[in-house]
Amino acid sequence: MNIKPLLLALTISCAPMTTYAKDWSQEPLAAVQQAAEQGDVDAQHNLGFMYAEGRGVARDDQQAVVWYRKAAEQGHVQAQIFLANMYVAGRGVAQDDKQAMFWIRKAADQGSAYAQFMTGMMYRLGRGVEQDDQQALAWFRKAAEQGDARAQHNLGVVYAEGLWWTEQDDKQAVAWYRKAAEQGNSAAQLHLASMYYEGRGVAQSNRQSYAWLLSAVAHGNTQAEHFRLLLLKELSPTDLVNAQQLAARYIQEYQPK
C-alpha cells in the first residue's frame, strides 16, 4: 500500500466557535447593530458574521470586514481569524496575504489552536511571510498539542517522512496520526491504515488497516476507497468480518470534529 503522505493544504474556513459573554446569534439585527455601534465586541463580531454569510441581512463583504475589524482591534480572537480569512480570499477587501498573516498571528499569539495551525501553513507556503519550514513545524506543534487534528496529521507526516531536519520516527508518526484519526480526520485515518499495513511504528495488521480505511471512506476520503479495494483481496472471510466490526466502532466513535 504505497500512500505518499501529503501535508494538508491551506484551507479557508471558519474557526471553531467559542462561547463569549453574550450570544448575539439569535438576536434581531437591530439589537445586534445597536450593541455593535456601542462597542460590544461580541456584537461587532456577530454583525460581521451576519453580513459575511447573509444571515438576517443582505450579504455585504465590505460591511463584514468593517465589523470584523472593529472586533479584531479589540482583541476578539474569532474576529481576528475571520478577518484574516477575508484577506486570504479577497472578500470585501483587496487580497493581501501579509494582512492575513498579521491578523492570524494575533489570534495565534492569544492561544487559538486553529490560528496556530493557519500560521504554520502560512509559513509552510510562504504566504504573507518568508517561507520557513522550521517556523511551520513549531506552529504545527503548538496547534497539535492543543488538539488541532490537521496539525496533528501534519506532524505525523513530518515524522513519517523525516522532514524539516526532524529525525524520522515511525512511532511518533503513528502517535500523531492516531490522535488526528480519533478526531475523525480522514487523511490521518488513511495514513494510519498505511502504517498498519506496512508495520511501521506498530505491529502489522491488515485487519486494523482495513478498519481505518473503511472509517476514512465513511468520512469522504476517496483515495482510501481505492486502497480498501486492493486490501480487500488480501483478507480472509474471518478477518474481513472482524475488520468491518472494528470499523463500525471507529466510525461511530471517531466522528469529524
The separation of the N and C termini measures 27 Å
For the sheet with most strands, the description reads: none
The coarse silhouette is elongated
Number of strands: 0
**Count of domain modules:** 2
- How much beta, percentage-wise? under 5%
CATH architecture of the largest domain: Alpha Horseshoe
Q: Output the helix-strand order.
A: HHHHHHHHHHHHH
CATH topology (fold) name of the largest domain: Serine Threonine Protein Phosphatase 5, Tetratricopeptide repeat
Briefly, what CATH class of the largest domain? Mainly Alpha
- Rg measurement, Å: 21 Å
Return the average pLDDT rounded to an integer: 90
Oligomeric form of this entry? single chain
CATH superfamily of the largest domain: Tetratricopeptide repeat domain
Organism: Aeromonas popoffii
Signal peptide: 1-21
Keywords: Signal
Protein name: Sel1 repeat family protein
